[in-house]
Amino acid sequence: MSAGENQPGGRRQRPGRRRDAAGRERNRPTSRSYTQSAPSERTRRADPARLVAFEVLRAVSDEDAYANLVLPGRIRQHRLDRRDAAFATELAYGALRSQGTYDAILSRCVDRPLDQLDPAVLDALRLGTHQLMAMRVPPHAALDQTVGLARAVIGAGPASLINAVLRKVSANDLAGWTAGLIPDGADPVAAAAVAQSHPEWIVRALRQALAGHGRSVEEIERLLEADNSAPVVNLIALPGLGDLQEAFDAGAQPGELVKDSATFSGGDVGRLESVRKGTTRVQDAGSQLVARALADADVEADGPERWLDLCAGPGGKAALLGALAAGRGATLLANEPAAHRAELVRQALRPVDHRVWDVRTGDGRDLGRLEPEGFDRVMVDAPCTGLGALRRRPESRWRRRPADVAQLAPLQRELLDSAIAAVKPGGLVAYVTCSPHIAETTAVVTDALRRHPEMELQDSAAALDAVSLPGKLEAGKAEGDGSTAQLWPHIHGTDAMFLSLLRKKSTVPGKD
């Protein structure tokens, strides 16, 4: 029966209207606003790679999880192959990195404040926006798959909203949206915050850090861009315990900065047997360098050396220090205040001869009092804001607040004081942060030197150069007797690790 023929009850069907089985009109227009596909053609399932990315964003939003810890397990759980794993990784990390810019775009396309949206809907919108703005995904596929994901895991109603919003987003490209979001004459910091998706306070802090560490503030755009670039996976074979042949067979390339290192882009690194055994570890090249710098610098030791990792969790630097100590007849005490993180340190150290190391669960601020002048080398990898690792932990930029810097400052100083008390005369303390923020780096060291005249600053830049591959790092030699050293993602390709080596003046007659 055609649309204009008689219907039950003698009434005629009006064009564009449909009746249900009881003869009631259904108020649904013939043009579908939420999709251009017929019902039988709409995607109703969640693509596995997109589902993994969605689950990662939900864990980050709901559980304050870290994406880099959640993602590998989700990839294995959903049995993604190498190609889909790479897609899920880029989608999850990209949506998190660019969340600030994407939320600014979405706020122009949604008829209510974003904080009034269901968080799951907002996460799905961010995933769809990243596909439209920054991935080589055809727009129709980005919309169809994102709406299908939402229909499968959130619901049909929210899927309609997501479809409508993403159609508005797709009306412009990223450059066009960004130009519209930044008014003429905008403050450069505010403009960079929108264009490079960083909170304004972090942009200001990084500009100050560049200047404070002797670099030009004009590098800020390159630094922010480096923060937004997908980092390579860095591997290290624990000295004397592992090798990288399995990784090379899987496509890894030799590391460019540090010996016994490699870069890996072959998918899930957890599939490597050497990684599962712990003899090969995932560790940023900057972290490798600062640990080796402490281990290789000269100390005045009388007998076998004792080393201390004061803030050892989760164990990456401790594992490298333990392996180096084992090869030099030294021992390592790894201290970690949190019990669950102390267990991670034990797992990291397990491949190392158990006679070489011990793990203590306790407050590192106590060790200077409990074991005064008991160690030849002390690593203080101090808790910090982590502003130097934003490319690896993209969600951190949205969690951190300016107040965090002030709140961490007393702890950083107290831990460094404890390390200074714990180190022997002639021994070394390495103060390390994964942050270039001046308040967490040079300000802490300057204050410590003022309060501890028995300590003297070493040439930390030269110490880094000495443990890097020849001619590769060029951190620079100090003009005077001492220096701190700052690594940068946009210069060295590492996390923004800070290192200051401090020596306790020897009390042996005839020595400084």
Automatic annotation (TrEMBL):
What is the recorded name of this protein?
A: Ribosomal RNA small subunit methyltransferase RsmB
Tell me the Gene Ontology biological-process terms attached to this UniProt entry.
Answer: regulation of DNA-templated transcription; RNA methylation
**Family per UniProt?**
Belongs to the class I-like SAM-binding methyltransferase superfamily. RsmB/NOP family.
Q: Record's Gene3D superfamilies?
A: NusB-like (1.10.940.10), Vaccinia Virus protein VP39 (3.40.50.150)
Q: Which CDD domains match?
A: AdoMet_MTases
- Return the Low complexity bias intervals: 1-10
Q: Where is the SAM-dependent MTase RsmB/NOP-type domain?
A: 209-505
